[in-house]
Amino acid sequence: xxAQQPRTSVHRIDGDDVIRYVNxxxxxxxxxNDASGMTAENVIGHSIYDFIAGAETRHVYRLLxxxxxxxxxxxxxxxxxxxxxxxxxxxxxxxxxxTTGVEFISELRHEETRGxxxxxxxxxxxxxxxxxxxxxxxxxxxxxxxxxIETAIAHLDLMQSVEMPELKHGICPECLAIVQxxxx
Length: 184
Fold this sequence. Notes:
Helix content: 10-25%
CATH superfamily: PAS domain
CATH architecture: 2-Layer Sandwich
Order of helices and strands: EEHHHEEEEEEHEH
Strand content: 25-35%
């Protein structure tokens, strides 16, 4: 049996960081992850930063884009793109496109099903409390330590909560080091 080709979604931005293209796989991935409003019509023509949660994460993207554009190099960054019922290990390829544009290719490397993680479910009511989650590895800052999401939920006794805390996206020190040293 032939090996299955990895699924890849592609989107491109222009020199002003405005989304100019998304492929069919990008749209299918959004739809499969309860983001059916993320259609080509709803994202093309908008800033990429309209769709990146957290000031810290947006800052890291700006730094990556500056490096790709100024050095005309491609970067490869591992990341997680989890849903409430799936853990996904992915690779983000960021490379120059045209004169000032940038192309993003997200490649699914591994996916596993897990029991529902309510903390990641956008439909769950949120309380006033907030938790920091790493946008790259999906670990949560719990009691001054970055922990896997399931461990943090147990550690913070969130299964007994009526409302889940709000998630504030950022980047953990380990992922920051990986992103800063990203290469092709």
